[in-house]
Amino acid sequence: MINYTDKAIIITGGGSGLGRAAALSIAKQGGKLVLVDMNKDGLEESKNEILAAAPEASVELVTANVTNEEEVKNYVQFTLDTFGKIDGFFNNAGIEGKQNPTEDYGSDEFEKVVNVNLNGVFYGMKHVLKVMKEQGFGSIVNTASVGGIRGVGNQSGYAASKHGVVGLTRNSGVEYGQFGISINAIAPGAIMTPMVEGSLRQIGGDNWEAVGTEFVSVNPMKRFGKPEEVGNLVTFLLSDAAKFINASVIPIDGGQSYKY
């Protein structure tokens, strides 16, 4: 049984995709939410969808840029001021960036992707961990990717940043397990989110759906994953039921990581 009653959870990237799916799942289990995103409209859409499914849910919204450490400190402090603690943190905000071979990959683009996907994750962990260490409890789930455990062509910035998230997760899990804190990462494969659709459009333009069909044909399960499937995994990992899972990276990709 998973029960989030009276648990305060921060979710970055909460305005769409995996963040919204995890928020919806956790809200249905009674969790109190602070959703963080740069997209204010997306945050409002997430809140409306959550309240439609769970009318009694407590949902707070914070518009913030995860690459700005002061804004990260602010959403952490807002959660403390509002709920008095932080039980869980889905450190999820990320971008994919443009697709190009490494030799043609723009330096500015590389820095942009790494800044969001790795620096943003680090800032979040840094300031949430201070709170959780003082509390003596807490759970963190970082969003890595199959691109963090294997190569993905034409995505140097994305792959480098997600490999960094994997390393940061494993290192921090080893450091902070002694304080009652579990830190893990998920490694999603092709999940049909706005970001994945954008990637397919980069490749295929108006023919993106056909590109998607071809892409998943090599997946052992022959389909895209659903955001709610990832949301369910995050809900489990942030719960008390998963307390002894630590410093782990868990693929959710239909077996894509293991297929040659």
TrEMBL record:
<dbReference type="InterPro" id="IPR036291">
    <property type="entry name" value="NAD(P)-bd_dom_sf"/>
</dbReference>
<keyword id="KW-0520">NAD</keyword>
<dbReference type="InterPro" id="IPR002347">
    <property type="entry name" value="SDR_fam"/>
</dbReference>
<dbReference type="InterPro" id="IPR057326">
    <property type="entry name" value="KR_dom"/>
</dbReference>
<dbReference type="GO" id="GO:0016491">
    <property type="term" value="F:oxidoreductase activity"/>
</dbReference>
<feature type="domain" description="Ketoreductase">
    <location>
        <begin position="7"/>
        <end position="189"/>
    </location>
</feature>
<protein>
    <submittedName>
        <fullName>NAD(P)-dependent dehydrogenase (Short-subunit alcohol dehydrogenase family)</fullName>
    </submittedName>
</protein>
<dbReference type="GO" id="GO:0008206">
    <property type="term" value="P:bile acid metabolic process"/>
</dbReference>
<comment type="similarity">
    <text>Belongs to the short-chain dehydrogenases/reductases (SDR) family.</text>
</comment>
<dbReference type="Pfam" id="PF13561">
    <property type="entry name" value="adh_short_C2"/>
</dbReference>
<keyword id="KW-0560">Oxidoreductase</keyword>
